[in-house]
């Protein structure tokens, strides 16, 4: 793979007061090259640099996507200034996808694919199996495929499922082990016993409880009381309800929630329910064995009725004091706001641990309804954005009824 041209963008020190590159005997040609790759050519760029070698195909790939110009419909069209473009040809798109994978690193490829879907309307071409086999699979692509699910021809669905499964399996490898370990510890801490077997002894707590039995002459503690964990019980200790907004803006969160839902469902001491909603409510608990089935059971897009979804979740809670409800939503409520808040307050009063995640993704600060988030926080139901890596710790704290570890700057 060639070098990452994005690491060579011009720095502030490279720019003169007039806005052009500053001549430098140490690297004038390299600076001109950087400016040319950023500005995209044409008489106005002022560099006079002609891309050669790998720069030429890199420039063509960038031009096809980011060339400026507007068509009659006001949409951006590729190649108006740079002279390239993808058009509507599947073969040309396939070549372009191959080019960007050749000349750019994976992280840049994913960004360019996302921009191509948004700017050039490539979503329709993803309905073709050949296109799906050519793209770099990531969470955002999965979200796009799910939004196209109902329009997808049968011959494409198997390819789409294979793409989605690849992403899901990568996420499970990254997240499953840590999630199970963290939550198992949180659940076991509620089952301490006073006569544990040797391998079940909690030595830190045992030492702390027996400090007064320290024998200086032997420099040791003779414990009169052992504290430890009980053996893992097969009985369900806690219930978890994941209530997930499937509006279009929540695509990445839906993907991660489906993976975590499958992981939680695999733990015998947890009873896990997964509910997705827009203006309708769908219970996908019976599909939790396979997160791919869960994802293809969703329907991204549509409106939002959080109140209706919470009403359904509330009706399924049988042990409020042992239940954690996680609402994953940007809180743009299309239902009845006051009723939504009353339901949350009622669940809290009954002993339910209630947490609101404004996003469950790595996408940074989400857009959300600040008024609703503040109202939930005032009820003692914290509302904040959470990355997948932090989710196990949040769930562990909720299961133990401890202080929720809210990331700095992420709370409403």
Descriptive overview:
Residues 1-18 and 69-84 have low confidence and may be disordered. Helix 6 crosses helix 7, helix 7 (154-188) packs across helix 14 (391-399) and helix 11 (306-315) packs parallel to helix 12. The protein is of the alpha/beta class and 412 residues long. It is built from 14 helices and ten strands. The protein has helices spanning 28-39, 55-66, 90-103, 106-120, 129-134, 139-147, 154-188, 203-209, 251-265, 291-296, 306-315, 337-349, 370-378, 391-399, and strands at 192-193, 214-215, 220-221, 228-229, 238-245, 270-277, 281-283, 323-328, 353-360, 383-386. The strands form three sheets. It has a six-stranded mixed β-sheet. A two-stranded antiparallel sheet has the order 1-4. The longest helix is centred in the middle third of the chain and has 35 residues, at 154-188. Strand 8, helix 12 (337-349) and strand 9 (353-360) form a beta-alpha-beta unit. Helices cover 42% and strands 11% of the residues.
């Amino acid at each position: 793979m060639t070098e990452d041209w994005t690491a060579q963008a011009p720095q502030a020190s490279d720019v003169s007061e007039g806005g052009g590159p500053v001549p430098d005997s140490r690297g004038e040609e390299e600076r001109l090259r950087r400016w040319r790759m950023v500005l995209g050519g044409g008489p106005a760029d002022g560099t006079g640099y002609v891309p050669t070698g790998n720069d030429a195909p890199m420039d063509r790939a960038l031009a096809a996507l980011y060339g400026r110009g507007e068509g009659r419909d006001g949409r951006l069209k590729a190649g108006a200034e740079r002279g390239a473009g993808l058009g509507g040809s599947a073969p040309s798109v396939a070549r372009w996808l191959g080019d960007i994978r050749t000349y750019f690193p994976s992280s840049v490829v994913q960004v360019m694919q996302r921009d191509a879907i948004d700017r050039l309307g490539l979503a329709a071409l993803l309905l073709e199996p050949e296109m799906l086999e050519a793209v770099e699979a990531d969470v955002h692509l999965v979200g796009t495929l799910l939004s196209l699910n109902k329009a997808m021809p049968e011959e494409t669905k198997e390819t789409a499922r294979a793409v989605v499964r690849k992403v899901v399996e990568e996420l499970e490898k990254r997240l499953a082990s840590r999630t199970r370990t963290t939550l198992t510890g949180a659940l076991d801490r509620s089952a301490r016993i006073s006569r544990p077997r040797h391998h079940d002894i909690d030595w830190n707590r045992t030492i702390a409880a027996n400090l007064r039995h320290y024998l200086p002459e032997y420099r040791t503690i003779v414990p009169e009381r052992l504290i430890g964990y009980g053996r893992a019980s097969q009985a369900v200790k806690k219930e978890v309800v994941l209530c997930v907004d499937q509006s279009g803006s929540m695509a990445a969160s839906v993907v991660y929630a489906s993976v975590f839902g499958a992981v939680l469902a695999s733990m015998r001491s947890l009873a896990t329910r997964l509910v997705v909603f827009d203006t309708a409510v769908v219970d996908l608990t019976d599909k939790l064995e396979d997160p791919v089935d869960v994802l293809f059971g969703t329907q991204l897009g549509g409106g939002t009725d959080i109140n209706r979804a919470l009403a359904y979740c509330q009706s399924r809670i049988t042990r409020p004091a042992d239940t954690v409800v996680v609402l994953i939503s940007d809180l743009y409520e299309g239902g009845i706001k006051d009723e939504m808040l009353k339901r949350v307050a009622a669940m809290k009063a009954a002993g339910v641990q209630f947490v609101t995640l404004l996003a469950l993704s790595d996408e940074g600060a989400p857009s959300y309804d600040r008024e609703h988030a503040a109202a939930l926080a005032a009820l003692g139901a914290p509302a904040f954005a959470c990355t997948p890596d932090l989710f196990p710790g949040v769930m562990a704290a909720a299961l133990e009824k401890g202080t929720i570890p809210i990331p700095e700057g992420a709370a409403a």
